[in-house]
Amino acid sequence: MRKKLVVGNWKMHGNRAANAALLGALKEAGPWTAEVAVCVPFPYLTETALALTGQQVLLGAQDCSSHEQGAYTGEVSSAMLSDLGCRFVIVGHSERRAYHHESDQLVADKAKAALAHGVTPIVCVGETLAEREAGQTEVVVKRQLAAVIHTLTHCIGEIVLAYEPVWAIGTGLTATPEQAQAVHAVLRKQLQAASQKADAMRILYGGSVKADNAAQLFAQPDIDGGLIGGASLKAADFAAICRAAM
Ligand code: PEP
Fold first, then answer.
1. If I label 99, which of 30, 90, 164, 223 is the partner at 20 to 30 A Cα–Cα?
2. Rounded distance, CA 167 to CA 172, Å?
């Protein structure tokens, strides 16, 4: 039985006062039986770690460097994330693939760097609308995951995978539970061919998950929770999604 995981991705939102209010409200709203985490912008990691002390909600970051350390201005290493208490780091989010031209191999290298420091990478895969309409969904997500499998080899079982159709992120369009499950099943099969741990691995769905569609999505056999963007910025909405995963 896989424990459901709900992860908030704050993206580039927030400020110290708003974050404190959000984290305070989340504290009041818990506990949940699902595992819950928030991936916050780098500057707020330390303060968020303090605010989460003794709480159920786990800390995560939104990206990491593929490098260990060195002259890489502006980058943040996974060793630093580990040092700050991060349990998770999102890698390969479609916004980074699109706006920062991150390749499948770079995403895989970031996942490897994270694992080397005990930080669980949440590896995002997903197709664009054009790719879906061209019937390329499976080809795209399998190609993205294959790079990670090839790079991590026997460690692939340690990652969390997130299927995030690009056309559903921040658009209000959600994949139907059936559409999402179909892709999750494809990804599970690919993982099964690569790892004995595949059946214990969590595959999250992300893309306009809201309080009113979360339960149906999370009820699908291969959907093990969610990666939540916009709705993670409102404590009541995020808490309701966490409840839907219970
Ligand atoms: C995301 O940022 O990963 C995401 C899924 O965003 P949203 O929930 O806003 O679509």
1. 223
2. 9
pLDDT, one tens digit per residue, over 70-98 is: 999 999 999 999 999 999 999 999 999 99
Å from CA of 228 to ligand 1 middle: 5
93, 95, 102, 131: which one is catalytic? 93
Task: Find the helix or strand (DSSP H, E) in which 8 lies.
Answer: strand 5-9
Whether residue 93 lies in the annotated active site: yes
Q: What is the pLDDT of residues 163-195, one digit of tens each?
A: 999 999 988 888 899 999 999 999 999 999 999
Q: How far apart are CA 18 and CA 40, in angstroms?
A: 12
Helices (H) and strands (E) counted in the chain, each on its own, are: 10, 8
- For the chain, the domains span 76-239
**Ligand 1 touching residue 131 (CB < 6 A):** no
Does residue 183 contact residue 172 with C-beta atoms inside 8 Å? Answer: no
Residue of 102, 131, 164, 184 marked active site = 164
Q: What is the mean pLDDT of residues 137-164?
A: 97
pLDDT band at 246, cuts 50/70/90?
confident
Fold entry, domain 76-239: TIM Barrel (3.20.20)
Is 164 one of the catalytic residues? Answer: yes
Nearest atom (ligand 1) to Cα of 95? 2
pTM of the model: 0.98
Q: Which amino acid is at 130?
A: A
